Amino acid sequence: MDDEIQLISDGYGLTVHGDYTLAKEFLVSENLWSSAKDLTKQLNIILSAGSLAAQVASEISAGSSLWVQITKESARQISKHGLRTSSKTGLSTGVLKGEKGQIGGFVEFARVPGSRLSPQALSGVAGIMAQVAMQQSMAEITAYLARIEEKIGDLHRDLRNQALARLDGADLMIEEAMAVRERVGRVDEVTWSTVQDTPSKIRDTQAYALRQLNDLVEKTERKSKISDLADALTGAEHEIRMWLFVLARCCYLQNAFDVLRLDRVLGASPEELDQHRLGLKAARQKLLETITQATEHLLARVDAAARKANTKVLWHPTASPAVVRAGNDIAAIVHAFHELLGIEADRQSWEAKPWREAVTETKDKVLETGAEGVDTAKQLGTKALGRARSVTAKISSKVGERTSRRRAGENELVGEIKGELTEKGG
Fold this sequence. Notes:
Number of domains: 3
Radius of gyration: 30 Å
Order of helices and strands: EEHEHHEHEEEHHHHHHHHHHH
Number of strands: 7
Structural class: alpha+beta
Helix content: 55-70%
Largest sheet: 7 strands, antiparallel
Strand content: 5-15%
Oligomer: single chain
Shape: globular
């Protein structure tokens, strides 16, 4: 019917199928139009080349298919329309009724929510939706790799290239197959035969990169001194960036391979398309869980290091803030990677405790012990000033004036501690 549009969601994207004007007006009304892609031509080319053509060509060509990627914001907008999810296909579908040309007509679902497309056509649309989502992810990964490439030093670039060398053959074959697919519109048996064994190389490289990340965590766990911890985290920042680069490249190639795989199934065994699509979705989720486990473990160790550093700032006024700064840099790198892959995780950051605040806290604790704490206060003053002088001796003369002001503050605080304890001790 001309006054209906069909909504199809696979969790990654939303396809609106039906009259082009109505589909566009619906997306405009939901503030989704700016990111919409027209899949109509792509659907017709791919489906007409496969064995689904006779069953679904007329259904698909009867309307337009507009696709948008689902974000947190758009997911909330879509959910209000009450799509019904099928346990068999994993798709959420529905039909909206409205008067042609009137946005206000989109107010309720038809009495029987679902899709007018036949199961075969719906399966074909869902398969192509999955491919489009993967290609969207590939474009985002490409942009990420370009940004992070600039921040990888020559030494780490060599290490990264050594790791990616395992993928060189698979990389070339997948890119070649994608180029053929782009030109021909499908993946034939010959093209498929050149790439079907590449996933093992991708998985091996992923596993290697994850192991390297875990090794970095173990290295930092072995550092007990704050100065050593600061050096370890600063060095780890560059390595973490490098290994996340390798993981991102693996994800790019895996997405490309999955696009080819769905094309091959669509052309050779369309009745199995839903199961393959759901299988790939489950495999992706498992991979994301594995990556999340490794990166969350890393962030937990950084969190422990930052907290420890803030408890030692009195004795390590330079190294402790360095640990916190390195921790924040690492967290920013990991959070950007999480966002790229759509991993839900809490953002973490830490603030370095000022040296003066640490002295004040210690002063308050000492005063709580009463007059018997005078000796402790003297030891505190001697050690704190000694450490401060030791650090000052290593600093450039350019900051001499600032150091003198800080030393005067230190003398004042320690003097307050001694004076208050002496007065309290009578």
